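Morning. Coffee machine broken again, so started the prediction first thing and wrote up yesterday's gels while waiting. Chain of 194 residues, entered below exactly as on the submission form.
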Amino acid sequence: MPEEKVVMYESAEAASIQTVTGWVGADGRFWGNDEHMARYCGATHRRCEKNPDHPIHEVRSWCKQCQEESRQEKFAAMPVKEWTGEPLVIFDGGEYFFDEDSLRDYLIDNDIDLADLQLCICEPNMPRQIDPSDVFCDDLPEDGEIRDQQLVAAFDLLNEMIRQSEPLSWSEGKFAASLPQSFINEIVAARVAA
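Came back before lunch.
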């Protein structure tokens, strides 16, 4: 068995002074050759990477103008579907309309230009069925089977009720809404009369 080399704390072999070159952020953290991280940690704002003509933005954020352009492109690319009374939401917004009256009131009261209106047809968020093997996965034996048939029957009954349930909520769907011309005429007439 070879003997372990002994290096004393005070010896020149234990440590030496070296000159190191690398990137250092404004906070004093050394980043070696990683210029990007040094600049990222030391800067507060930066130019837009996609379009330098856009206003500067915070480093830990994104270009608001690019974000808006991207969202408008997404809406423009959405397939359009004739609205037949489904719940609606303003694209990228939190304003939902669950009936024709609430949409009509909103459009009349807020004097929104109908050409600029971006509505999406909502999709339902349905409750998910429950798999008892998932619920009890930590408690089941290795074969993973629930042997109590009454418990299985109870889950089957619960899942049947879940399948018959109404939506829990609604979310923005993949279709842009096209309002019927008769509804648009009604809004225009109501604005003229007001």
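Residues 149-164 form the longest helix (16 residues). Going to sketch it on the whiteboard this afternoon.
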